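Consortium newsletter contribution from the modelling node. Members have asked for a concrete example of what our holo predictions look like. Here is one, prepared for the biotin complex that several groups have been discussing at recent meetings.
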Amino acid sequence: MDKLDMSIIIDNLKADILGRNIEYFEKIDSTNTYAKTNICDIEHGTIIVSETQSSGRGRQGNHWDSQKGKGLWMSIVVKPKINITDSIKITSVVALGVRKGIKNIINESVHIKWPNDIIINKKKVCGILVESVISGENIGGIVIGIGINVSHSKDYFEKIDYASSINIESISTVSREEVFISVVNAVEMELDTFFITKKLDIKELKNHSVFYGKNVKVIKKDSEILGKVIDFLEDGQIVIEDYQNDRIIINSSDVSIRGLNSYID
Ligand code: BTN
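And here is the predicted structure:
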């Protein structure tokens, strides 16, 4: 297995703050768990990256598969002055950055499946898991977990037909180092703007969403809602119009969204 070449990454990273410190592991349980556990000792902008994770975590308690040396499994720790309401928007801000970072190095269209998946050719190539560490009434730190499938082989996804990797879906072949550099640079630009304005770029979110204007199935723990995605809101929620023309605001926590017939369609 080729290990990540950290010297290429350090020499080419243009981000001012993100990645100034990088903690590299060959194996870890989960970069997010490590970052949360050690949040007090980790500086703003630090990136934890590992070749593999034994207990990688996704949203809603899902396991995140982290094949050794085939993807980027990393957590970015930030410690902004931000309130809890604004912190909820960070998943969308990071999704815009990761989308742009991947788009900048490949020719294919790259989309966002709200709230946290990055999609190429209707397949998930990346997931984002943002976790806040609250101390008292303040945010002690935010852990931005990013898992990107880069160079897995096609047969790896035989049984997970909604997922894929960048190099399967793209004509050009990219290295994990290129993806790391491009994504971290783009995420830093999005976060810098957001930490000043505290505003989401709704226009960009709509432009790059796989579901804006489409009929979808919103899956909650005990129920499902069918309807069309008609809006993205300033606070990070989305609006669905159901078949009775009622408008329902959907919060990202504990829901997942699918197309009516498949993952996207
Ligand atoms: C999802 O799609 O449900 C989110 C997946 C997030 C996976 C990344 S990999 C690096 C970081 N460490 C984890 O345990 N999870 C995130």
